[in-house]
Structure formats: structure tokens, C-alpha cells
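request received
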Amino acid sequence: MLAAILLGFLFAIFLVFTGKFFRGKLAILSALIPAGLFAYFASFIPQISSGEIISKTYQWVPAFGVDLSFKLDGLSLLFSLMITGIGFLVFAYTASYLRGHKYLDRFYGYLSLFMAAMLGLVLSDNLISLFVFWELTSISSFFLIGFNNTNPASRKSALTALGITGFGGFSLLAGALLLGSISGTYSISEMLSMKEAIAGSEYYILAVVFIFVAAFTKSAQFPFHFWLPGAMKAPTPVSTYLHSATMVKAGIYLLMRFTPVFGDQEFWNTTLIIVGGITMVYSAIHALFRTDLKGVLAYSTISALGILVFLIGLGTKAAFLAAAVFIIVHALYKATLFLVTGIIDHQTGIRDVTKLGGLRKIMMPVAIAGILAAISSAGIPPSVGFLGKELTYEASMHAETFTIIIVIAIVLTKILLLWAGFVAGIKPFVGKLPEAHKDVNPPGFLMWAPAIILAVLGILFGIFPMLIESALVKPVVSSLGADASDYHLALWHGFNTVLLLSAITIAVGIFLYFFLKPSAKLESRIGKLEFISPKSITEKGTHYFSVFSAFWTNVFQNGYLRNYVTTIVLFLVVLVGYVMFGNPTVLIDYRQLSEVTAYELAVVIILIAGVFYTVFTKSRLAAVAAMGVVGLAICLIFVFYSAPDLAMTQFSIDTLTVILFVLVLYRLPKYLTLSDYKMRVRDGILSAALGTVVCLLALQVLAEPTNTELGDFYAKNAYILAHGKNVVNVILVDFRGIDTFMEISVLAIAAIGVFGLLKLRLKSTDRSQ
Amino acid sequence: MEILLAIIIGILYAAGIYMMLRRSLVKLIIGIILLGNGANLLIFLLGRITEGAPPIIPEESKVFLEAYADPVPQALILTAIVISFGLQSFAIILVKRAHKVVKTDDLDEMNATDEDS
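response:
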């Protein structure tokens, strides 16, 4: 199973090196990979439908409980088959759709990366590895949406999608860690057995909220839905594959996967019903106002995802059954409609539905596919869509509370979706063919065949529901923790309320289709409400956030060294000062202090005078000389207090520095007065405060006992171990010899730098500024 | 003497920071040097000062027989002095070079990259 998941990654890497061979006729060969994987996963159908669960665990980071463990049950199998099956058709379709594209190989690379990540996501049994695959799908989606990278709108949409789904991924990680700490494991199977412990935990709500945010962002639920219409900037194969059939269902998958863990709780069910309900009605209404075919499809996809969330929220067996069927239904008809739209766009260059018509005369197979998909989407018998709709209605009618509102909402949504399906699947093919499209070429076989296959399957499964019943639908329901063995899918359930609702839906929907034509006028009307949509609110938020961070950065990272120094010093003074004021007694044991002799006092006075002269003199040369005096005075202090080596080093280094300074700076211009009186006073106060703090700190440390263990060790062993009598020298060249060696290297580097700076000829930078 | 040394350290720190807050590059380097001297003295003082007893083992014996100054702070300071010389010499040459190119000693006129100016 690991190999099956890795295959996509390996192929993507393989394409990096051999890409140029796949740009031409060989491109179609890439479709063999999803085809092979589809066959591989299909071979598990008998085992899974008999109730088996196949799992495989590979250790990854066992110390953190992170494993590459995979589990294939009904739910995973359904998604795997969708990913590889639709993947196969999309791969083949792409070979024709993007024929001769400069970066076709890159496109296949991203697609197979996505496919592998998506497979990993639905097969992972470990929350952390699920998270990793989840993020990989977001990233590959980013590349695919932004595939037309010369188009600014496309780049912007890619960024929006990445931002929203990335936020969701972050939330997923938080939820995963929280769940991991509640249950003590990252294995999803093990969490299933701890349902009570998790539901009883005080972090239950928080964990659920995190998972919700992850699922709602990925599956484009209100108010995170707006990235999906933007994602339609991607080439149509991507919209088909990622943004209708697979990736956007990852959130649905996550919710379904966690239903047995989190389900049957009021918070879980109510939230899902409300969010799903709002999403499905809101975006179904939005679809009415679109003229771009892909816009209509995008909003109807969001609406369909809303229905799925809503069904999971209902949480009954009937609802799970409806959800399982509806996933299949939706994948089949929506992918077909996207493929059809892609063909129309590819051949005519137009996606504006108000300007399309009569295309059946040119592309009959495509028209058949479109019409079949529209029928399935409308839920007209004998399509599988009818099954899905019946089940959905039945589940809604058995909702425990607010049944009437729920039923009205779902019927309204279905009516509007019927309209959307008809507009996308039927409208471009009927009526009169516009003059401009008389010479449009019919699409190639590779383009229309995938659409026809999916559309025909949508009808076939409706007539023979037993094809999917025990193989796909029931195992999904049992993965959700319900038992559906007593239920049978069938087109005919007798005369009942559900059938009546279906009839009303179809009648009203078709009436609406003839009555309400999509128009630019309607589209501009909804545009006026754009300013209160979640999209513009988020965009404004992002805008102001970046304005704020620019302001913030400019305040703190303003490029002036002295402001940084001021900030650091001020912080230090306030913090250390605060601690010292809280503990104000500086104990000085005067008996321990050494006496001050006259010559010491003289040195101290010279030193202080030197410092003041260095600071206040107006001449640079005098400042350097005074600094030299300070250094020599320190040298004398070293001499008085038993540090002959330090004195020697200080003496030579100080002399060298002064000489270097004088030699180099001799030619610099005079000091300029660059600061005013006020600034100097302010800096002076700050520096004095720091000096005081350091001084008091030193006194306070002196009052504490010291530890001479280290010094004693070196002193004892200097001669015995290292055969040297000057302990300081022995430490440097023997005990800490490697440190000293490093220090010499640093000096060598500095010397090289100095040499370079002196010898460097400024050819390119010597221009006058 | 310890108190006097602590005061000297305070003065060196204050002077060093004051110089670092000036706009002139040369003053910045002087500030760093003063601050470095202050830090060296601080380490020296906190290792406790001892008069007239350098950490050198007498000629005729293998270990110390009398009190001796702690060699560890001295080793640290020696390293610090040498390293700071590396820093100073590089900085001084850099100032010279920068002055040759941009003809200014004022830090505020240097806070833009080539592209901005």
C-alpha cells in the first residue's frame, strides 16, 4: 500500500528529470499510473465489502507516536477509487486539453503529486501523517491553481486558496495535537475505541472546533467558501479533479472519519447542520447570479458540499447512506459537467453561458454527456442522482428538530442545483448556434470520452444500484459506525412524501430553468452586495493586517542602529533596575575589600579623566589618544592585581589599535556635530542609568560567595598534567587548546577581511553616488 | 579598591553606550572599544582581585603553596582582548573603506541599500 501511495510522488520526481519526453505524444502514458492504481484499489472491493479492514503500519517517528500507518476500509476505498478513477480520466483528458503546452510535464508532476498526497490523506490511520498529506494537497493545489503563472488573477487566487486551506491545516494540526494529548495516541483506529473518554474530556469542544475549521476551510463551507470560486482560475482539469471531485471532499472525508469519534453529540450535530445548511442554500442562490459556466459550477459544488456536511450533521443511518450515495453521485455528474465546460471553453474560448447555444451540432458526444450529467444532477430517474436525492429527502424528513425548515431548505437547494445543472449541462447545446461558432472544431476523442464515461456511469448506477450498493455504499456507512445491511437501494420506493417532494423539485426546477435565464444584469446586481461578503471582509482584513505589520516593523526595525541600542539598553535598565529595587540592599563587606594605595588612586583618576576626554573632545585624534590612555590605565590595573599576561596583551593590543586608528583615520574629515543638545542629554541619562545599574550589579555580585573550583583544578594540574608553570598560558594553549585554535582562525579570517578591504579595487561600486 | 573598580566599570559602560548612540561611525567604534574594556574589567573584578600573587607556579615546586589569583577569568579576558582586536581592526578598515565609497561618516546616511539610494 505504501508503494501505491509513493508511486505518485516517485512519478512526480521522475518527471523532473525526464519531463521533456512527456510534453509531446507520450503525455498520455502518464494516465497509466492512476489507471494502475485504480485497478489495484478495485481489487480490494470484494474484501472490503465482506467487512474486512486492511491495515499496514510502517514506523516513522515511533518516539512521537507518528507512524505511516494505513487503513483501507469502506470510506477510504470509496475515496481511493474516486481519486484514482477520476484521476485516470482527468490525466487522459489533460493530454488533449493542454496538448503542446510548454509546461505540460510540470502539470502532470503537480497532478500526480496531488494524487499521491490525496491517497495518503484518505488512507492514513495516523493523525499526524494525515496532517502531512493534508498539507501536501494544499500545496499541490496552490501550484495547480496558479499554473497560469503569468496571470495575476490566477496567482492571487492561488494565494487566497493557500491562505485559507493553510489556515485550516494549521487548525488540523492543533486539533491533532489536542486529540493526541486527550487520548494518548495519534492512531485514528485507537481513538475510535475511546469515544467516551474523548466526549467526556473538557477539551472536547475545542478539539471539535479545530477539526471543524480544518474541514470547513478545505471543503469550502460558509464563511470560508470564497476561495473555491477563485480557484476556478486553474485549468479546467484541475477544477474537475481537485475542486469538485476530490480535494474539496477531503474536509467531508475528515468529518466522516471522525463521526464515530465525535458523533452523537449535540454540539457536533447542530453545528454541522447549521453550517452545512447555510452553505448549501447560500451558494445555491449565488449560483443563480453567475454567467460564467465555471462560476455556476463552483457555487453549485459548494452547495453540494454543504449538503454533505448537513447530512453528516443529521447523523442518522439514513443520512449516512444518503451522504455515501451523494458523494458518488456528485463526483460523477459534477466532474462530467466540469469536463464538458472545459471542452466548450477549449473549443470556443468562451465560458459565458449567455453567449453559448446550439453546440450539439458540432459536438454531439459532449452534448450527450452534458445532458446525462444534468439529468443526474437534477435527480431525474433513472439516474443515480435520483437515488441520492430520494435518500437525502428521506434523511431530512426524519430530522429530529426543525424538520419543516430543514426540508424546505434542502428542497430549495435541490431546485436551485437542478437549475445550475441544466444551465451548465444543457443550455450550451440547445437552441441556435451563434454565427461566431459556426467554424468551431469538434473536440478530440480524448476530451469527450472521459466525460461520456462518467455521465453514462451516472445513469448506469441508477438503473443498477446493486453495482455500488454492497461494493461501495454499505462499507462506507459501516465505517461511519452505522449498520446498513437491511437497506436496499432502489429507484422505486412506492408513492410517498419523498416521491412527492422529488416531483415538486423537478417540476419547479424545470419551470425555473425556462423562466430564469442567466444574465449579466443579474450578475451585476449581486455584485452590489459584494462588500459584505466574507471574501471582501477577509481581503480588507488581510490588507489592514499587512498595513499594520508594515507599521509595526517600521517602528521596531527602523534601520537606525542607535534606536536598537536604545531599546535594548532601556529594556535592560528597566528590567534589572526593577529587580534591584525590589531587593535594594547591597551588602558590602568592607573588611574583605583591598586597600587603595596612592598610585592606584592616581591610575584610577587618569583612567576616569581619559574616559571623559574621549567622550567629550571635539577632535578625533585626541579621542583616539585618550582612548589609548584608558587602555594603558587598565593595563596598569592588571599589573597591580596579579595578571601579568593580561597586562602584556592589553599593552600591545592597545598600542596597535591606536596606531591603526591614527594611520587610517588621519584622512577622515573633522567630526561634525550631528546631534542637538536635547538628544545628547537624553542619551547621557540613558547611558548613566546603564552605568549605574552595571556598577550596582557588580557590587551585588561581589557580595555573593564565589566558586573557585575550576581555577583550583587548573592550578593543581597545570604542572602535573600539562607541564607548564604559567597557569593562564597553560589553560589557553593546552586545556582549552582547540578553543584557542578557533580563536586564531577567527583572527585569520579578520585579517583576510582587512587585506581584502585594503586591496579590493572598486570597479563596479566606485561610481559616485 | 573593589568599589572604585565597580565605579570605573560603570563609567566605561556608560561612556561606551553613549558613544555607540552617536551618529559618527568612528565614535561607534570607540564606543565598542570602551564597552569591551568595561566588560573585561567586570569579568576581572567578579573573579575576585588578588594583589601580588600571579597564577604562576613557583620555580621549585609543582603546585601552588600560597594564595594565587584565579587564572580562569584571566584566560577568558585574554581571549576577549585578542578577539576584540580582530573586530576593531576589521571595523576600522571597513569605516575607512566605506568612507572612501560613500564619502560620509554619518550612520544615518548609510541606512539604505544600493537599490534604494
